[in-house]
């Protein structure tokens, strides 16, 4: 069916795939700032950099874009959804760098293996960078263990850098009193919020054009309806817009209007999550075409 709407609208690729795609990255003001923080962390060899954001706002896509710009003198390890105790953490880390753990290794052996790796890379002029995606899953004890790993750094040179990406609860964990030493090691942190209505419209046009369209395949009222239903979260915007194009092609529509979004809602194709914590209590479906939207992104 997606191939069908590609032909109908003249797209070369799907405009709204939910898979992270750095080639489709839309540089909103917030994304530019988040990326600048990540680059700043690498440039200054910051021991700890933290970027948080709601599910689906594009954190993983930013990391994929960052990896395309890293220097050859950096040894990058990427870990997603790591869980477990401190021994498990070290095994996750060694696996990220394709390092075999000694048979029957205990925690001390695992730590020594990793430290030897970091020191050998430093001797060859390379910096070790460890990136954790979905870092809120690590928990307070494991985050403290990560802080202890930064003790490998000594003198004026940084041998190991940590970059943590996670959902908003990661920031809440880091600010607990028992993690004050961890927080003190964080050189830069940024929260990537959802889009406002204007940014959502620009995002939709951008992806339509990147896919080979004109950008007008989804009209303004439809974009406003998508924004309200998705609450400005890019992943949800993608899901709704993709289904809307399927419906539009099936109905032989030259462009998607707000009535198509209403039809998706009536047909139950859109599952809407609860509002973000801290948002005002409002309906899970906002169907007023001219609803007043707040200006600026959440921080």
Assign the CATH superfamily of the largest domain.
P-loop containing nucleotide triphosphate hydrolases
Return the string of H and E elements. Answer: HHEHEHHEHEHHEHHHH
The CATH first-level class of the largest domain comes to Alpha Beta
Fraction of residues in H or I helices = 40-55%
Structural class: alpha/beta
* Radius of gyration, in angstroms, nearest whole number: 22 Å
Shape: elongated
The overall average pLDDT, rounded, is: 85
Number of domains: 2
Number of strands: 5
Organism: Paracoccus fontiphilus
Protein name: ExeA family protein
Domain AAA+ ATPase: 45-187
Question: Explain this structure to me?
Answer:
This is ExeA family protein. By secondary structure, the chain is of the alpha/beta class. It has a five-stranded parallel β-sheet with strand order 2-3-4-1-5, with helices on both faces. It has helices at residues 2-9, 29-43, 59-67, 86-96, 107-123, 139-149, 168-174, 180-185, 197-210, 220-230, 234-250, 258-266; strands at residues 48-53, 74-80, 127-133, 160-166, 186-192. The longest helix is centred in the middle third of the chain and has 17 residues, at 107-123. Helix 9 packs across helix 10. Strand 3 (127-133), helix 6 (139-149) and strand 4 form a beta-alpha-beta unit.
């Amino acid at each position: 069916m997606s191939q069908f709407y590609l032909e109908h609208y003249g797209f070369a690729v799907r405009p709204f795939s939910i898979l992270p795609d750095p080639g489709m990255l839309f540089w909103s003001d917030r994304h530019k700032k988040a990326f600048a923080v990540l680059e700043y962390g690498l440039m200054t060899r910051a021991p700890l950099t933290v970027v948080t954001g709601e599910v689906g706002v594009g954190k993983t896509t930013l990391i994929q874009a960052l990896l395309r710009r890293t220097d050859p003198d950096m040894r990058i390890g990427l870990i997603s959804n790591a869980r477990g105790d401190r021994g498990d953490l070290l095994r996750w880390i060694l696996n990220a760098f394709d390092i075999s753990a000694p048979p029957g290794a205990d925690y001390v052996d695992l730590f020594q293996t990793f430290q030897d790796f970091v020191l050998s890379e430093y001797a060859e002029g390379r910096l070790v960078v460890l990136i954790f995606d979905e870092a809120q899953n690590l928990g307070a004890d494991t985050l403290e263990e990560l802080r202890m790993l930064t003790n490998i750094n000594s003198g004026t040179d940084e041998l190991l850098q940590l970059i943590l990406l996670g959902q908003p609860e990661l920031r809440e964990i880091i600010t607990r009193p028992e993690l004050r030493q961890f927080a003190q090691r964080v050189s830069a942190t940024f929260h990537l919020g959802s889009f406002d209505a204007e940014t959502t419209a620009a995002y939709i046009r951008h992806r339509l054009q990147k896919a080979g369209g004109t950008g007008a395949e989804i009209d303004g009222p439809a974009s406003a309806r998508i924004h309200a239903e998705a609450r400005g979260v890019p992943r949800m915007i993608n899901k709704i817009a993709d289904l809307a194009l399927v419906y539009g092609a099936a109905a032989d529509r030259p462009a998607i209007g707000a009535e198509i979004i209403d039809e998706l809602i009536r047909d139950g194709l859109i599952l809407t999550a609860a509002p973000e914590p801290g948002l005002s209590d409002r309906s899970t479906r906002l169907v007023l075409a001219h609803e007043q939207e707040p200006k600026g992104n959440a921080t």
